[in-house]
Amino acid sequence: MAEDFLPYGRQSIDQEDIEAVTDVLRGDWLTTGPAVSRFEADLAEHTGGTPAVAVTSGTAALHVAYAAAGVGPGDEVVVTPMTFVATAATAVLQGATVVFADVDAATANLAPDAAKAATSSRTKVIAAVDYAGHPAELGELAEVARSADALLLEDAAHSIGGTWCGHAVGALADLTTFSFFPTKNLTTGEGGAVATGSEDLLARARGFRNHGLVRDRSAQRFPDEGGWHQEVHEFGLNYRLPDVLCALGSSQLRRLAAFKERRARIHARYNEGFADLAGVRTPIQHEQADPMWHLYPLRVLEGRRRALFDHLRAIGIGVQVNYIPVYWHPVFADLGYQRGMCPNAEQFYAEELSLPLFPELTDAQVDRVIDEVRGFFGANSSA
Fold it and tell me: Where are the alpha helices (DSSP H) in the chain?
């Protein structure tokens, strides 16, 4: 990477983060130790008290959540197409049929009316994504889920620390999943978590992330086998997040409020810089939302997104596009999904361009991005 290349996202690591990790490395537990339960407790402080299960990635969190929900062959999962492929792929891996429902044209979040139209007697889960960090319309989506006798899953990979109608992300859906990849709002290197207020779903999530092992003698079928005995009653996988990474996560959580405040200021600076610029559209924010802005999704109009992308990349500004509609991936096309099924999502994709956004981005760097975008359109800077 060139020295002056400006990425669209990156981690923010300080000395306290480094010391938290080295303290674990000097101790007795590298995995399955006390730092895991501490991180899960720390997470609950940011999810309205909702218990959390730490796992190895955001993708693992989705897989664990679907498994905990009992998703399997014969079930349908309603999914937004404006997300990373994992939101849908992990449901397919559980044997479910994915039904894509269109998004709100302004926020790119799952539209409640589209989700309702996509439900059937086979719907097991409705999976919404908090696109760019702006929470989905969780109240209406919860009603849709209840009317379909389904669970609501909130893919909050972008939004930990945000709120909807004054309630913390993580406290509103039946299951909420998080990602702690380096470009996300906090990082454990790789990592994720599942939050749920249901004791049953929580127990199933904990079991699935640890091979489905049953060590509680009162729950075993053959408890008198010996003190070493453990059983597997349902299949699971090793999705355990080690203590080393959990310690980093706990340290990062102490700065989550500061990360949120800085991201909001960068977001507002972009909004101001593009307010009068013809040819683009800035993100909207519903009054019920207090987002944790993960992305700045600029809408580039009149078919000029590709040209602006190439221009900014050529001068060292690492913009990105998030995301192609999931069903455009060949793996879904090969299953029979066709382009054109979610027109709002496809229009949003055609215009979306993610500008650099991370806490250590300076005002001067933000202004550089603004100036280059405005220059591309032949406009003088107003930043």
Answer: 15-25, 34-44, 58-68, 86-93, 112-118, 138-147, 199-208, 243-253, 256-274, 305-314, 330-333, 343-351, 363-376
Q: How many CB atoms lie within 10 A of CB 228?
A: 5
For the stretch 20-53, pLDDT in tens is 999 999 999 999 999 999 999 999 999 999 999 9
Please tell me the distance from the alpha carbon of residue 33 to that of residue 11, in angstroms, as a whole number. Answer: 25
Give the β-pairing of 76-79 and 6-7.
Answer: unpaired
* Dihedral pair phi/psi, residue 59, rounded to 5°: -65, -45
Q: Is the pLDDT of residue 3 over 60?
A: no
pLDDT of res. 166: 97
Q: CATH 3.90.1150.10 residue ranges in the chain?
A: 256-376
Q: Which residues, in sequence order, are bridge partners of residue 213?
A: 232
Q: Which residues of 254-283 are buried (b: 16+ CB within 10 A; e: fewer)?
A: ebbeebbebbeebbebbeebbeebebbebb
C-alpha span between 64 and 90 (Å, rounded): 9
Burial 50-73 (b: 16+ CB within 10 A, else e): bbbbbbbbbbbbbbbbbbbbebee
As beta bridge partners, residue 127 has: 79, 153
pLDDT digits (tens, 9 = 90+) for 331-354: 999 999 999 999 999 999 999 999
From 116, 124, 184, 260, the catalytic residue: 184
The one-letter code for the residue type at 97 is T
How distant is the alpha carbon of residue 92 from its chain centre?
A: 18
Where in the chain are all domains bearing CATH 3.40.640.10?
12-253
The C-alpha angle 243, 245, 247, rounded to 5 degrees, equals 65
Q: How confident is the model at residue 370 (pLDDT cuts 50, 70, 90)?
A: very high
- Reply yes or no on whether the pLDDT at 381 is more than 70: no
Assigned token pair, 276 = 């009068």
Q: Please state the CATH superfamily assignment of the domain spanning residues 256-376 in this structure.
A: Aspartate Aminotransferase, domain 1 (3.90.1150.10)
User: Which tokens hold the place of 310?
Assistant: 């190439």
> Is pLDDT above 70 for 1?
no
With a pLDDT cut of 70, the percent of the chain lying above it is 98
> How large is the average pLDDT for residues 96-110?
98
Query: Topology of 12-253 in CATH?
Result: Aspartate Aminotransferase; domain 2 (3.40.640)
The reply to whether 116 belongs to the active site is: no
